[in-house]
């Protein structure tokens, strides 16, 4: 029986782990599939479009040739030429100088899809065709809620990790402070009291109820047999021992009837889906700690990013990562190699979750602050009415 029960326990634990991880993996996998399908769609639509020479492009080339001929050796005229050329290039459309097959390859389209559903939108890559624009709106309509769902779900995991690590840090800090404040004699006395208390609580063999009653009836003959606390603890231990086989019987029923186990696992998975976002509501860590985590997280990426983006230094990369993770995305800092940055997509998603948690904490702190200000103003108003009645 022991040999057969151990593999069954291993299988049940594997099933529990699978059904616990299943909702999180389902969200992430659906987002990855959605991004790949969008990349295939936009690369086919925008990458295969025909480049037509428009009338605006011809006018631009004519004006550029006219300004080039106008260039002379005179310094004042050259200063005017710089102003004219600047105004001319401001009217230029960047699409004129881009080859669709180069910009809208699979990796370029995948990068564009990531900027759409993460709401970053740098502005250097955008659909040109009418069909591409309509599909971009439809793609964002379903992709942005899916991305926020993934952020909320993964944010729960990060919130649990942060809260547990912060609580463990506080416990360690309190233990260190207690060990410093506690002297040798008082600590030894406390340890003796704890050991005595534990020795009283330990019960090796819990008695039956009849034995407990017999011993209680024999208290008159022998003055000190059992204390009331010990009797109560024996009864609890005996009751726990009696309730243990009932749980095993229920497990045997579930193992003999697979329909019940299916219903149980399905209800557990549905409960896991219903619990999304609950851990974020419980999170209570200092906002300074979250700012420090964000600073370290962005600094690590800012140190790695200039290795393949040669036009960036540490400060420029730090600025770019901050603008990306906060979903501002001005587009003033452009990437030369979006293929390499796509491997950074996991970094973007986790970073957006950290920033999302920080914004949530900041929002909670602001709500508490507003409540305090409103209550303070209301109390002042009430006291002024009492002091100066009409």
UniProtKB/TrEMBL annotation:
Domain Potassium channel: residue ranges: 101-158, 293-363
Ranges annotated as spanning the membrane: 21-42, 104-122, 134-152, 285-305, 317-335, 341-362
Family note: Belongs to the two pore domain potassium channel (TC 1.A.1.8) family.
Record key words, sorted: Ion channel, Ion transport, Membrane, Potassium, Transmembrane, Transmembrane helix, Transport
Classification lineage: Eukaryota, Metazoa, Chordata, Craniata, Vertebrata
Topology class, membrane: Multi-pass membrane protein
InterPro entries with a match to the protein in the record: 2pore_dom_K_chnl, K_chnl_dom
Organism in which the protein naturally occurs: Dicaeum eximium
Keyword Hydrolase among UniProt keywords: no
GO cellular component term of the entry, any: plasma membrane
Transcription regulation found in the keyword field: no
Name this polypeptide is given: KCNKI protein
Any matching Pfam family: Ion_trans_2
The encoding gene: Kcnk18
A molecular function GO annotation: outward rectifier potassium channel activity
Subcellular location: Membrane
Biological process annotations from GO: stabilization of membrane potential
